[in-house]
Amino acid sequence: PIEIRSLHKEGSHTAQGQVHMWLEIRPEREALREPRTVLEAPEKREFEVRVICWKTKDVPYESGDYYAEFQIGDSKKQCTDIHWRCRSGRASWNWRLKFPVELPLASPELGRLNVQLWDKDIIKWNDIIGQSQLDLYRWLLKAYRENRAWLKMTYKDQKRHRVYHRGAIAISVEILPKEDAENRPAGHGIAEPNQNPTLPP
């Protein structure tokens, strides 16, 4: 029969995967004749996650100066440019963000794409409009190629213990092995080379 065991990092209660194995019980003398197999960690590979932030819809404010902020795991946060004086709740950026990622990840939590929609304020602090989270972990495991989706933005009011719908943001995510990313270059934002895909101004 096949045995299934969870794999744990030392000091952690969270499973890091499973091992499926065939367990064979043999006499010690017979078993010692065969060399032991050393289990090694999977080889690390570098990837690039490309996120394109397209636009928003259904943002409840009549006007604002909107930008979106992105972060994968504990990577450095990256932002779109600012859509100044947006009066319809439909901000538009067509903005590319690039994140280097080394796979496999140390934990599934590091595979989450955090997205926040902000209203820029010049005089005082910026106001968060809403946020969303996209779990890329399974996509990263499969080196998922491309997907475009609307992410619903929500705002959690801590005082009232309520969650409000705050519109949606359209993004694309592409996960490339480093060598493919080098063969298909793309600039940050709308900088050159503006390709793979080409983003309208």
From TrEMBL:
Domain C2: 28-151
Subcellular location: Membrane
Keyword Membrane: yes
Keywords for the protein's UniProt record, in alphabetical order: Membrane, Repeat, Transmembrane, Transmembrane helix
Record region (Disordered): 182-201
Membrane topology (UniProt): Single-pass membrane protein
GO biological process terms held by the UniProt record: plasma membrane organization
InterPro entries per UniProt: C2_dom (IPR000008), C2_domain_sf (IPR035892), Ferlin (IPR037721)
Keyword hit for Metal-binding: no
One Gene Ontology cellular component annotation held by this UniProt entry: membrane
Protein name as annotated: C2 domain-containing protein
